[in-house]
């Protein structure tokens, strides 16, 4: 019988029947062999993360990676998703415009800190968990005060380094979503640190793979997938790390139907933070331009995620995610029934189709000299007396709109 075993569990006497990569990519001459000495174990550990052993041809292992996982979840969030009440109900304590300066400062400082932390990891240093916590804290406090300001600023800022900005987008959005789900403040911090760090293992992936334009080869994609385990290893070596954060990194590419990696976990085998991370990571990847793809409109990304409910993502979490972000998420470009074009500034928690919008272009698609703010709960008619509504979402950059210039350089 063939069983999946971590290379850290290998012992002399086991029979290796298969590898986690093609045999030709390794120095092993035989496709299947008994482990005879420590040198062979070391070679396997150097080239593979896991192997398959034949338990009928060799010795057994003390643990197997294909056994049913035991990853703890957040039980009060699980109960809420099953129809319970939120543990905490947050209300905005600060208006959007009053919170914007603090949100901008928090994001800029966090961006600098994340770049510094990644550089340290590339240099072989251990992760400074206290520094990660300090980077996350101002973002956490800002989103707690106002759920839209930091998401708005994130849309406005220049994106110079995809990996860092993607991590920060994930972090900020996880706090907003966790706030919506009613997580306690300490749990919001844990979740957001997990989302900030979930791709940290990419510092161990070769630059030629990370920076490659076009489709990755099979072997390159397998190596890219290994960033999950590289990240777990880095965090396990970091003093003071929370096990829940490690589990976010471990499970953020698992999928609800079992089609994800690295372990092919299914349903609630994946802890709820991992299920949350999977949705957020997918959303931010679709709505940000990268080397692999152009960004799509946020409302289209939400539609895609909705279509994947009960397949890749848990239905109840998808429903809550859509409630959190609204039909047209903060930062989205929209076209109005009047022909004007605007950008969503903040959500209306009770009337999702009536957010606050910054109008950028007039009905002839000409820029306003001074942008105007409209609240669709108040302004229900346009200048002609007709119903004033959003008629469609627009692609990022539509009509030449540069979000980094909306609030000025």
List keywords for this structure.
409 residues; alpha+beta; Hypothetical protein af1432; five-stranded antiparallel sheet; four-stranded antiparallel sheet; 14 helices; 9 strands; 41% helix; elongated
Protein model, in words:
This protein is of the alpha+beta class and 409 residues long. The chain has three domains: 2-54, no CATH class; 75-325, Hypothetical protein af1432 (Orthogonal Bundle); 333-405, no CATH class. Helix content is 41%, strand content 11%. It contains 14 helices and nine strands. A hairpin with a 5-residue loop joins strand 7 and strand 8 (367-375). The model has no long low-confidence stretch (mean pLDDT 90).
Structural class: alpha+beta
Distance between the termini: 63 Å
- Radius of gyration equals 24 Å
**CATH architecture title of the largest domain:** Orthogonal Bundle
Q: For this structure, what is the CATH homologous superfamily of the largest domain?
A: Hypothetical protein af1432
**The first-level CATH class name of the largest domain:** Mainly Alpha
Main beta sheet, described? 5 strands, antiparallel
Portion of residues in helices?
40-55%
Number of helical segments with 4 or more residues = 14
Give the oligomeric state: single chain
